[in-house]
Description:
The complex is a heterodimer. Chain A is mostly helical. In chain A, 78% of the residues lie in helices and 1% in strands. Chain A has a single domain (60-274), classed as MetI-like fold (Orthogonal Bundle). In chain B, strand 17 and strand 18 form a beta hairpin. In chain B, helix 3 (110-123) packs across helix 4. Chain B starts with a strand and ends in a 5-residue tail after the last strand. Classes of the chains: A mainly alpha, B alpha+beta.
Amino acid sequence: MRHFTKLARPYIIWAVAIIIIPLLLIVLYSVTTGGNDLVNIQFTLDNFKKIAEPIYLSVFTKSFRLGVITVVICLLLGYTLAYIISKFSEKAQNILILLVTIPMWINTLLRTYAWISLLSDNGIINTMLNKLGFDSVPMMYTDFAVIIGLVSDLLPFMVIPIHTSLCKIDNSLIEAAMDLGADRFHTFWKVTFKLSIPGVLNGIIMTFLLSISTFVIPKLLGGGQYMLIGNLIENQFISVGDWNFGSAISLLLAAVILIAISLMKRADREDTEEE
Amino acid sequence: MSEKVIIELKGLTKTFGEQQVLKGIDLKFYENEFLTLLGPSGCGKTTTLRIIAGFDDPSSGEVLFDGVDISKIPPYKREVNTVFQKYALFPFLNVYDNVAFGLKIKKTDKKIIEHKVTEVLKLVGLSGFEKRDVSSLSGGQQQRVAIARALVNEPKVLLLDEPLGALDAKLRKEMQIELKKIQKEVGITFIFVTHDQEEALSMSDTVVVMNEGIIQQVGTPEDIYNEPENRFVASFIGESNIIEAVMIKDLLVEFDGIQFDCVDKGFKENEDVEVVIRPEDIDIVKHEDARLKGVVKSIVFKGVHHEIVVETEKRDYLIHTTDYFEPGLEVGLTFGPDDIHVMYRMDWE
């Protein structure tokens, strides 16, 4: 065993170089002033205090609200899709899962531009509405557009883990439930859904994480004024140049996500123990 | 066992794709009966059980339960419960909740559930295990939970799909006795599926031998063992000498060029038949005392008995005896008229 652990050393160095050091730098930036000036370091907590200002707090609440809406829609659509797919033959399932993942092969930017050409005022949908004699419906630069963009982008991250956990369910458990008098509805809620919870949790965590940290989709579909946490961080680093404030926001976001994940994992554990 | 039929299968067939796994099954199950479906894998025994449980639909034929056709009724409305091959216990529920599952679905009163679960756990010898996680139990204990989970619903018929298959030899023996005891105690019909002939013979009131989707023989364990109806049953139920023979007339059969008295009648004169002689029914005697003569070819010690192969002019005979005979020794073979079991010749196989 010993000489096998040696083989891991290059990866440890690699992980330290690209994960640990940048993370430590972000921590350092978040509690200092003066940006890249690492010679005259001055420690401060002002960066965190700044987040508490109403204008930035509202960005946080808006991001979380959108994240939750996106996750809920992804969960409803994704679970249904994963469940339907799991009923097909194994061969057909492979093809269907491939179809679900195909959009991920295309760059997010391109896919988002596709939504613009569909949703914009003289886009495909509104042109068709006009031809049918209806008025145009402004859709671009609204929550609606951003949510559509996020859901379509993140749906595979919900479908795949749920599908995986549905496939792992031993069919004799379903038969056992029916044998014991459970109709389809009860069998689903009391057995199938229970056994798919790990997949559901993974799907929720992934889609939530990705939806509150994204910045491309809200920027393109929500417009320049549309500010989510991801855009705020991007702005601090690219336009404003306040790396210290940007780092503080990033750190806070990471902390919030970590807490959310650990709460969910704990809830899952307690749930299984209680039953 | 009573005379009342509880389940009757009529002309049951089942086809999966190209393959016909059941080719017309007609069978009656009686109240309080311990019936075993016995056969090699792929003989259709599990499919028959799954059709009774409602997990598979028959391609044609009827499943009558108390005289009513239930072949279109979903499993959750049938008065049968199943013990699955790999137990199929719910991993997210403890022992108590696994057993209570069926009663909770039926919205039974909480007090009654508690009483029934306690009673049934006592029956299977798992009192005090209520709060245990099912994954922390041994195979034998999980098996008992599975039996309790099915029995607590008070089904009229309990279906058991090779339930002892995953247990080790010693535990199997214990559970065989236990199951038989439980069946007597609850007094309902058990339909047991197995490929183990010893298990079938030691537990059952009735054994149904199946092969290639057809019932080969139905009878008591004694009937099946002593009076197999054809070569398949004879060879599947333990080692045997199966010999092609001619029925000269009633009570007289000829094989290996010798005519023997037997106890079978009702065959045509000079009909081609097959004869089965169980290895333990053959006696080895002195060379000059028997009409059938041979040489000891091999002897293997099997614990209780020796397994001896005696080579005669026409064929090798397998004999089980507690005596020892030196290989190479010239011996004679004898058997009584009632040790010879005459069977119809099978055209197939």
